[in-house]
Amino acid sequence: MTYCVGMVLNEGIIMAADTRTNAGVDHVATFPKLFTFEVTGERVIMIATSGNLATAQRVTSVLRQQIAREEAVNLHTCDSMFQVAELAGEILLASEDHYRAHNPMSAVDFSSNLLVGGQIKGQAPEMYHIYPEGNFIRTSVDTPFFQIGESKYGKPILDRIITNETPLNQAMKCALISFDSTMHSNLSVGMPIDIVVYRADSLETKIERLEQDDRYFNRLAMAWGSGLRNLFDQLP
């Protein structure tokens, strides 16, 4: 299992993903699930993945190969984030079909979900949730964030805090608290956490990795936990 969250705010975009993969209690490993595709000053595209790891890796590999081969349609030539979402959805569906066709009797679930967010110069930042079937939906004023993977434990804090007007620094804290809540309730989600904080119209970004011993994250988690306990004690 994994956990990924993405937000589209007036100030920009936040995307974050854990890196733990779990194929049983004796087979836990770390793999990145958040990726960036950037042409500095022209476009920034971020993709977070959950679900079958082989399928997700095939999707990102095909997208990078298309760029390297300078194919007519690739992430660097799409003229809108909608077209980016369509391209990613097509490759996701083809990747799932590829593995199912070669393993017709397998009980393995080859499906994956994607969060695709970013900005192309001259256009507004956008984010899409792409389902295993290849179809997708876009964030809106009413729904400014998406989650994929183990989403239920981190959702309450997001529902109460996140709106389009939430400042980036506040939204980042909220995203990290949602990870802390998830990791407390589900051992299949774990550190390190990869996170991107993208400011609108900057058209450049990079992934930051928070390790197990990250001082800020640990201080934030402790403050959140003690604050909840103090508030609980004050309830009538």
User: Mean pLDDT, nearest integer?
Assistant: 95
Distance N to C terminus: 38 Å
Structural class: alpha+beta
Supply the number of helical segments. Answer: 5
Order of helices and strands: EEEEEEHHEEEEHHEEH
Radius of gyration: 18 Å
Annotated CATH homologous superfamily: Aminohydrolase, N-terminal nucleophile (Ntn) domain
Q: Roughly what fraction of the amino acids lie in strands?
A: 25-35%
How many beta-strand segments? 12
CATH fold category name: Glutamine Phosphoribosylpyrophosphate, subunit 1, domain 1
| Major sheet | 5 strands, antiparallel
Q: Please tell me the CATH architecture by its name.
A: 4-Layer Sandwich
Whole-number total of structural domains: 1
Percentage of residues assigned to helices:
25-40%
In spatial order, strands of the major sheet run 10-1-2-11-12
* General form: globular
Regarding CATH, which class?
Alpha Beta
| Unreliable stretches | none
